[in-house]
Amino acid sequence: MVDLQTQYQHIKREIDAGIQEVIDTAAFVKGQKVTDFQHHLEQYTGAKHVIPVGNGTDALQIALMGLGLQRGDEVITPTFTFIATAEVVALLGLTPVVVDVDWETMNMDIEAVRKAITPRTKAIVPVHLFGQCADMEPLMQLAQAHHLYVVEDACQAIGAKYTFSNGETKQAGTIGHIGCTSFFPSKNLGCYGDGGAIFTNDDALAERMRAIANHGMVVRYHHDMIGVNSRLDSIQAAVLDAKLPHLDEYIAARQRAAAYYDKAFSGNPHLLIPGRQAGSTHVFHQYTLRVIKANRDLVRKKLAEHGIPAMIYYPVPLHQQKAYLDPRYKDGDFPVAERLAECVLSLPMHTELDEEQLSYITSTINNILE
Predict the structure, then answer these.
(1) Phi/psi of residue 127, each to 5°?
(2) What are the CA-CA distances from residue 305 to residues 43, 72, 265, 270 (Å)?
(3) According to the model, what pLDDT value does residue 370 have?
(4) Residues 182-192: what's their mean pLDDT?
């Protein structure tokens, strides 16, 4: 699904030099490499504050902690997403409220959000699924009208851009009050372990979240709030700082691969290519097809027989997960998400895909579904 070894060979000199510098200085935690990467990521995204943390899940949790929400407050999130989005809500004693998604973009349905807002709603967590932004302009207008916080889960969409109707363009993760991203190795900007970051343009929120990520501490050994221990280590920062200058070319490579897939599958009656969100670019963390009038699981099995990996993101929506069963929801309440869970299939997508590989993948799938 992802060829990180070949990617490494292209930037081996920069990666090795950065890691060696960390070892030579022995500044493994909160070293200069972390500070350098933080500043470079601020420059790239346009975010006023970047707070590096241990992983994307921590980023989401610290973001919600930073808002000072109270037990029982409701947080709206899509039901079709990775579990971490709701997990942090539940861990903090908040109430996850799930909504359906759009069939084409697979992102949060804005009208469903509108209907889900109650007097207890305090925040919305849109997920920029698979690499493109949710429809942020109407979502931000809705949040402003109801005085709600917006925390973007941009863990799959770093580098994606959203253009508003007035022509203003912002990076994924910098539109809401807070944005979160992950640097898991398979991400478009991935490290060689775990890592994540939080974005905000709010000075007070930034100060509070930095303290929360550092045991609730501003002055050493003085803890003004309950916090956690979440930090990006210097070796991972060195890897990320070496990769960041290449991020745009990585995105372009993924977009070229997606265009090849689009063209190859556009005439296949059993496949629907990924829909595109108006106003957003797509950085293709995943290339996710919808298999219709055919057995998705059988297609996946046959692909494996031909040496082609394919993944299902995600086979069970949040409202059907055992840990999140809720009497408010029943099967059939979120028909789009439930249908997607039965038909989505993600193909290999990474920076090193060449035409020979793409031709083999696409011809094999079309032959299976002819």
Answers:
(1) -110, 125
(2) 45, 48, 20, 20
(3) 85
(4) 98
